[in-house]
């Protein structure tokens, strides 16, 4: 931050404090890879925003109302798109695109008598220079002075995620395990996977090993979801249909539970890897030795093999992430669920913030009102993808930070600077204390909003430059404008809320239904389906957790969908080598029935068509050259899926009845 301010002042830029603001935003998660990624996003967004600002002014400078309307649409577009982005770093690009366009248009319009093509270009060039200087300086310092690598945080999070998953696997196989405890573990695992996936893209910038580590994280997240899908089979069978668990199968599950518990308590990779390989060998032996198997048991034993294979791949991914291994691992990154309704709501909210500020600016003509527009617009875009409770809490904390820093600015910073010699060293000494406290808050996730509320307004209120203005009345006006703007933003978030949680849950389930139907069209369906399900599972779990329902039936249904996808993929692989063309129509009908049965189950009903489509497909397979053991396995799959639909539909129907009463 000091370097950014020094370079901006040395270059005699018009408003060096915007370089300072740019550097402040890059101190949120200061790991070097993340800073580089955020810096590139800031620069890209800054260039695009400046270009849009120039285009608006060139075409509509004589028509200020139209120009402000177009600017409002641009801000709404950036806000809406930011709400549909997965990586938080990419949100900075949209925030900078909106803020830079605002700065260019509003600064030029504030002095209409001097507005011409040269003035527009000069303003745009100055804003671009200030933001780029701040971003480049922050990146250089993060690389050269005590760099903190994002790969270290990824390694720690990956280890925690694996341990959490192993504990959950053991808990799921424990017949005495509590429902609430299982869902606490699931919530934690899904949040860890989401954080891992978000940060993985930044590790690419940390050296030649970065791309391989990025692929390892993607595979680890992907295979962890496969483990969660597989373990659901055994846990639910033990709890809901204990009569179907034979004694040999119960011994296998108990052995697996003991192995998962030992692995969770071990901190040695090699030991865990050996235990996983040993578990897989034992499962293979059990599969060969256990002769009198029902179709359901055949399928369950095969599922234990798949589970142990996925666990080995998770451990291999962790090994690549933590070592210099050159293993070629790959999987698609987790996909962010993009719902246009959320983007539309978020965009309208940011447009409303801008239009309220713009109306007050036109009505009063006060330049202080510009601060009421700029910072709330940036905050509305940056925080667009957060859940409403977290978002409103964050805005309250930002307001607290503003309340703290305003008197510090008025009674501490400006009086000292007014009496100083004007040397840069004195300027830094005066600014160091408040910024140090704000940066400490920025470094800690729970106190991050306080840090934003301290650092950004402090830089904007003091406005350090070669010609600092010490007019207290201007500082008070700017402080009041910032506080009112963030307050307006807070209430707009309360008033213009996202669609209801029930509606969003149902739309998520509809998206899952479409994926279940279209799985066959994907070249790598397992990785594709896991990547798309990760964020959806987290959203459904978050919505249901916020609703207060302790049963969490829709979270269970979402995990059922994850398992149904894997069942469908296994069926396609088994039938892949069968040349019978007449199977295609029966398989396609079964796939459509599976999607319909899933969405019908979400309504608390059982789709009888699915059982009929299963029978039809089995009849077709009976006349095909399919090995008898494979046919037995498919029969076991269908039996288990039908049991799952019946049980889940009954649970959802009971909850609906209880809610209506």
TrEMBL record:
Pfam families: FUSC. InterPro entries: PHBA_efflux_AaeB/fusaric-R (IPR006726). GO terms for molecular function: transmembrane transporter activity. It comes from the Bacteria. Keywords: Membrane, Transmembrane, Transmembrane helix. The keyword Transmembrane applies. The chain crosses the membrane at residues 47-77, 89-111, 131-148, 397-418, 424-443, 478-497. GO terms for cellular component: plasma membrane. This is p-hydroxybenzoic acid efflux pump subunit AaeB. It comes from Shewanella morhuae. The gene is aaeB.
């Amino acid at each position: 931050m000091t370097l950014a301010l020094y370079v901006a002042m040395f270059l005699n830029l018009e408003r060096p404090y915007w370089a300072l603001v740019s550097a402040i935003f890059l101190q949120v998660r200061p790991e070097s890879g993340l800073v580089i990624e955020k810096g590139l996003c800031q620069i890209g967004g800054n260039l695009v925003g400046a270009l849009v600002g120039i285009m608006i002014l060139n075409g509509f400078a004589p028509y200020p109302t139209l120009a402000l309307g177009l600017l409002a649409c641009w801000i709404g577009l950036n806000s809406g798109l930011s709400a549909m982005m997965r990586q938080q770093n990419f949100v900075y690009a949209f925030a900078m695109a909106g803020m830079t366009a605002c700065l260019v248009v509003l600064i030029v319009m504030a002095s209409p008598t001097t507005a011409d093509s040269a003035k527009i270009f000069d303003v745009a060039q100055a804003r671009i220079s200030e933001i780029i200087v701040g971003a480049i300086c922050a990146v250089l310092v993060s690389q050269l002075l005590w760099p903190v690598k994002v790969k270290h945080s990824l390694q720690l999070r990956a280890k925690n995620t694996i341990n959490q998953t192993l504990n959950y696997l053991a808990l799921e196989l424990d017949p005495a395990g509590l429902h609430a405890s299982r869902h606490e573990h699931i919530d934690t695992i899904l949040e860890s996977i989401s954080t891992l996936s978000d940060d993985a893209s930044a590790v690419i910038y940390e050296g030649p090993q970065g791309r391989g580590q990025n692929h390892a994280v993607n595979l680890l997240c992907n295979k962890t979801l496969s483990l969660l899908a597989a373990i659901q089979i055994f846990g639910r069978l033990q709890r809901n249909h204990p009569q179907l668990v034979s004694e040999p199968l119960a011994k296998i599950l108990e052995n697996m539970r003991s192995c998962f518990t030992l692995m969770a308590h071990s901190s040695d990779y090699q030991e865990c890897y050996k235990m996983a390989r040993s578990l897989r060998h034992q499962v293979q032996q059990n599969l060969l030795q256990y002769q009198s198997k029902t179709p359901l048991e055949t399928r369950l034993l095969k599922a234990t093999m798949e589970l142990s294979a996925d666990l080995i791949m998770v451990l291999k991914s962790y090994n690549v992430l933590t070592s210099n291994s050159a293993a070629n691992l790959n999987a698609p990154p987790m996909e962010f669920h993009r719902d246009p309704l959320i983007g539309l709501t978020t965009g309208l909210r940011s447009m409303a913030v801008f239009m309220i500020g713009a109306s007050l600016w036109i009505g009063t003509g006060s330049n202080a009102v510009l601060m009421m527009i700029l910072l709330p617009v940036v905050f509305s875009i940056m925080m667009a993808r957060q859940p409403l409770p977290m978002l409103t809490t964050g805005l309250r904390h930002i307001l607290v930070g503003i309340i703290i820093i305003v008197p510090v600015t008025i009674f501490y910073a400006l009086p000292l600077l007014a009496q100083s010699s004007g040397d840069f060293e004195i300027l830094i000494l005066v600014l160091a204390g408040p910024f140090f406290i704000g940066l400490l808050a920025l470094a800690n996730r729970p106190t991050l909003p306080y840090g934003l509320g301290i650092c950004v307004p402090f830089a904007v209120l003091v406005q350090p430059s070669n010609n600092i203005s010490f007019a207290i009345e201007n500082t008070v006006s700017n402080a009041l404008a910032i506080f009112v703007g963030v307050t307006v933003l807070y209430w707009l978030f309360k008033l213009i809320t996202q669609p209801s949680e029930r509606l969003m849950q149902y739309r998520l389930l509809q998206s899952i239904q479409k994926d279940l139907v279209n799985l066959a069209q994907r070249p790598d369906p397992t990785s594709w389906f896991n990547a798309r399900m990760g964020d959806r599972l987290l959203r459904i779990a978050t919505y249901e957790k916020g609703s207060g329902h302790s049963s969490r039936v829709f979270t269970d249904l979402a995990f059922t969908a994850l398992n149904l996808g894997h069942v469908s993929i296994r069926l396609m692989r088994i039938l892949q080598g069968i040349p019978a063309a007449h199977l295609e129509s029966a398989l396609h009908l079964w796939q459509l029935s599976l999607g319909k049965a899933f969405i019908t189950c979400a309504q608390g009903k059982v789709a009888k068509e699915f059982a009929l489509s299963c029978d039809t497909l089995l009849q077709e397979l009976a006349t095909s050259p399919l090995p008898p053991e494979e046919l037995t396995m498919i029969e076991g799959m269908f039996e288990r899926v039908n049991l799952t639909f019946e049980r889940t539909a009954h649970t959802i129907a009971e909850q609906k009845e209880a809610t209506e009463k």
